[in-house]
Design goal:
Blueprint: H1 25-49, H2 60-80
Length: 92
């Protein structure tokens, strides 16, 4: 089981500040993706810390709302990375 993460833990966001001279689009994508995905994973783990029944009271409905919201956002991200398909033209 992953170790619990303290809310005060900070990720190094320096990798996302400003552009790097001579950086091409692929390098920029990789630099930003690494920083943003690591930050997202960190935040998701913090949400997981809320599962501690010794510290929090919550309902199954609240858990479902949280997990559904996360799943829906990941699905939206996946869709954004799918190739764009043309909208079919109207026909009769």
């Amino acid at each position: 089981m992953p170790e619990e993460i303290d809310d005060n833990d900070a990720l190094n966001d320096d990798t996302e500040i400003g552009a790097i001279d001579g950086e091409n689009k692929a390098d920029k994508f990789q630099r930003l993706a690494i920083a943003r995905v690591n930050r997202a994973i960190h935040s998701i783990r913090l949400i997981g810390n809320l599962a501690s029944r010794s510290n929090y009271d919550y309902t199954d409905e609240q858990v479902t709302k949280i997990t559904d919201a996360l799943i829906n956002e990941v699905a939206q991200v996946k869709l954004k990375f799918q190739p764009k398909t043309g909208v079919p033209l109207f026909t009769l």
